Amino acid sequence: MSTLIVDDEERDRTWLKNLLTTSPSLQGELPQPIHEGQDGSQAVELATKHHPKLVFLDIKMPNLSGIKAAEQILKLLPDTGVIMLSNFSDEVYVRQLWKVVPPNGVFGYVLKSASDEQVVEAAKAVLSGDCWIHPGIARVIQRTQNRATSLTPAEYEALVCIALGMTDHAIAKKLYLTEKAVQSRLKSLYAKLGIPGRSESHDTEFNQRCRAVYVSTRRGLINQSELDDWEAKMQESKADVK
Amino acid sequence: MSTLIVDDEERDRTWLKNLLTTSPSLQGELPQPIHEGQDGSQAVELATKHHPKLVFLDIKMPNLSGIKAAEQILKLLPDTGVIMLSNFSDEVYVRQLWKVVPPNGVFGYVLKSASDEQVVEAAKAVLSGDCWIHPGIARVIQRTQNRATSLTPAEYEALVCIALGMTDHAIAKKLYLTEKAVQSRLKSLYAKLGIPGRSESHDTEFNQRCRAVYVSTRRGLINQSELDDWEAKMQESKADVK
DNA sequence: ATACAATCCAGGGTTTCTCCTGAATATAAA
DNA sequence: TTTATATTCAGGAGAAACCCTGGATTGTAT
């Protein structure tokens, strides 16, 4: 029974380690020893080796993201308590995490802007079998549950494509659809994002396509590093065709 | 003669404070005492009060950004050594900083991913009247100097507008131009960003408008918080018209 | 079985964006 | 003064994006 801390920034690792070991209210409760890793693949590796009870994972890491690392760890060791540490309250991550964590899984989600007390609180909660979710994320989760505003996989796919700058035609080819189907997806996407079209206000204010990307980024539905991943995937599948 | 540390994250402030006070190679050289602030307006306030020799400024802060704070501080106290601390190597910030810092000003720019040694090095350099720029930023600066790839103010303005999702028509109205002029700006923008148009490749791959936003964000020419500032400004000027 | 939502698709019409050529201005460098 | 460069504009053509209505197909919940 040990604890695992995985973050690519050494500064954050030592901060967290100090916090956990010196906190009075965690004395004796924190599984020892504490192992450390620097990226997602190390996280999986160290977890399979030491079977930790508690794992802290940064989301944004090289090689393997914290989310994917969590997925693999939970698949192998479902009883592990996973606490995600993130700089952002991005909806993408909440979306992804929701799919990865088993329904009865125990996990925490804390932003790096959290106070030391909150981090300790999260650790204690997860150790005693509860979940701990950062207050700032509560409303994000609400939104992902809400039918009227949350995006379907189809809409999300379309969103990513336009954010990468693809044309309707290119999207259709990539997803094996007609252009009409693509436009249909986009139409419902714009509606859910609340972007007014030509019809609604007399003079057109917005280019819906770009506006959709802007508000989605602001809401954290997409972010640059996610898009870059997609871009890389696109490149690959393009190479396959050749 | 004192030192000023301004960052909205307490964690980073204490980290930096510890680093500066405990570093052997800075003993005796660091101006004492050390004052701390949490945002840009406090930075200006504390600087006018204590006339520090050295100021550490985080770029992303509430109320007043680190860049704007630096501008005001350097206007009042041109001999202050300013060191910018940033999480990102975004081109926007380099652009802005270049305008704000006087030609003979002394400043540093270090990324938060820097090692402790680098931060100390930067501090020593600035204290002895030199500039210190993070290696990762060198090539960004190169790009901002290069005529062929750097954007003119006109192009940059257009870029921000399309990133916010405005139509040609809306942009023209906002900037007091014809739509044709806007399109002309966009055309040269696309060219500088190296985005292929309909003519260049047989089948159109990209929606240039969205693609431009994507690559610009990736290059750090624009970023979300900057765009949000612009969005707020747009709202204001819209209210003025009423 | 019925209802519902999500999806794909079609046709046809309107607007916006992009492309091309070309011209007039202004400003700064040679 | 000439030469470049940046910039604003025009007209007209074609492509892409958006609007509306509506049908067919799935799957899922009641």
From TrEMBL, chains A, B:
The cross-references to InterPro entries, in alphabetical order and at most eight, read: CheY-like_superfamily, NreC/VraR/RcsB-like_REC, Sig_transdc_resp-reg_C-effctor, Sig_transdc_resp-reg_receiver, Tscrpt_reg_LuxR_C, WalR-like
**Which top-level group of life is the source organism from?**
Bacteria
Q: Which UniProt keywords apply?
A: DNA-binding, Phosphoprotein
Record PTM 4-aspartylphosphate, positions in chain: 58
Gene Ontology terms, MF aspect: DNA binding
Pfam families, per this entry? GerE, Response_reg
A GO biological process of this protein is: phosphorelay signal transduction system
Q: SMART domains under this entry?
A: HTH_LUXR, REC
Full protein name: Response regulator transcription factor
